[in-house]
């Protein structure tokens, strides 16, 4: 593998490439967006108010898939833990990896018409929460393995759009964006983990990544960047139609003509969110997670929407908000890159206002408390259904 690929898979590359576009934005030299940092204090205050509303003691959990499983204050995860409590601690962690890896891959935007009826609670959920509970129920019902509360390569390879559609209650009246893309991701997950027995075992399952990560801990400490690197190497081939270097799939990496050199800007949004979601089962094993703030904020439409809706970012041509844009369009790449940089600045401003440190309020908690929740809140105020301020043509694999 080339040094260039290794670099593009690093959080360092994400920040450096995004900051190059950010500096151009500050000089008003980008084609689509301008930045107004005079709004930074007001945005930080808005996010702080949201944090205090949801976490008055400022004890904020990580921004991860596990928060979605807790929606409605229903102890779904506790019910799972009770179902697998006879297993060893490591086997319990593997079961949680088996759940959360497919669940995150199934999470891309559902669209504003899809919903999921949860029979156990007789409640209906939409968007990320609905996708989370649908995938949780599917996992518990054996959708991803012949064995209870598990996922394995053999079963994942055979997943069909019809099966996902059935588990996710899809119909003509309840359409789910990117159904084929989601099932294809799970199929590719099955085939891909077969190719890396060092990461996923000789009888491949997502949960076997636990063994690999335990082996890469140092005196009980594990770097979040090591987890991200394992995710990017182990799952890199699942992404269809992406850029590659020397046959290596780059994943969530895109081009912008304003960048110097190879014009490539990496984001690894889903991979980073998946990494955040893998950390809690590892903490349950007693591992101390370090290097959290080397990771970046997540450039997706809630965080990016917050920046746009509150004036930190401004579209130079407002009419462009009225038409859909593909994930590889320079407008979307620009929006995502500027979002990464602004999230760092929002987090630093919030910490300063609250008298907290990067250790006590790492970026992963600012996202949860936080910018993602605030982005959803302001979207609901400004637009029916809380739709993003820019339309994205999603294939179910990016946002």
Automatic annotation (TrEMBL):
Domain of life of the native organism: Bacteria
Name recorded for this polypeptide: URC4/urg3 family protein
């Amino acid at each position: 593998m080339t040094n260039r690929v290794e670099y593009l898979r690093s959080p360092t590359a994400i920040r450096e490439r995004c900051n190059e576009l950010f500096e151009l934005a500050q000089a008003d030299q980008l084609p689509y967006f301008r930045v107004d940092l005079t709004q930074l204090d007001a945005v930080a205050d808005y996010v702080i108010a949201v944090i205090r509303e949801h976490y008055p003691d400022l004890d904020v959990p990580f921004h991860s898939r596990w928060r979605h499983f807790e929606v409605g204050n229903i102890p779904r995860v506790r019910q799972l833990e009770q179902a697998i409590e006879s297993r060893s601690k490591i086997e319990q962690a593997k079961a949680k990896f088996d759940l959360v890896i497919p669940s995150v891959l199934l999470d891309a935007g559902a669209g504003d018409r899809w919903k999921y009826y949860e029979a156990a609670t007789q409640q209906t959920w939409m968007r990320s929460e609905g996708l989370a509970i649908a995938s949780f129920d599917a996992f518990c019902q054996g959708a991803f393995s012949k064995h209870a509360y598990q996922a394995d390569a053999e079963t994942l390879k055979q997943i069909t759009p019809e099966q996902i559609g059935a588990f996710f209650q899809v119909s003509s009246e309840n359409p789910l964006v990117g159904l084929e893309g989601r099932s294809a991701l799970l199929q590719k997950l099955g085939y891909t983990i077969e190719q890396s027995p060092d990461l996923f075992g000789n009888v491949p399952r997502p949960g076997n990544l636990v063994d690999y990560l335990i082996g890469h801990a140092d005196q009980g400490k594990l770097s979040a960047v090591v987890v991200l690197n394992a995710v990017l190497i182990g799952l890199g081939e699942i992404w269809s139609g992406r850029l590659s270097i020397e046959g290596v799939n780059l994943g969530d990496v895109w081009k912008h003509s304003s960048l110097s050199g190879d014009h490539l800007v990496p984001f690894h949004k889903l991979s980073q969110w998946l990494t955040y979601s893998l950390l809690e089962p590892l903490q349950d094993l007693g591992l101390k997670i370090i290097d959290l703030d080397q990771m970046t904020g997540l450039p997706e439409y809630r965080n990016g929407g917050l920046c746009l809706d509150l004036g930190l970012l401004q579209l130079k041509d407002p009419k462009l908000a009225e038409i859909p844009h593909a994930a590889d369009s320079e407008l979307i790449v620009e929006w995502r890159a500027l979002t990464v940089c602004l999230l760092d600045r929002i987090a630093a401003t919030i910490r300063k206002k609250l008298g907290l440190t990067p250790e006590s309020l790492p970026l992963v908690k600012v996202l949860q408390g936080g910018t993602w929740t605030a982005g959803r809140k302001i979207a609901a105020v400004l637009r029916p259904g809380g739709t993003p301020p820019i339309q994205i043509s999603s294939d179910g694999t990016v946002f």
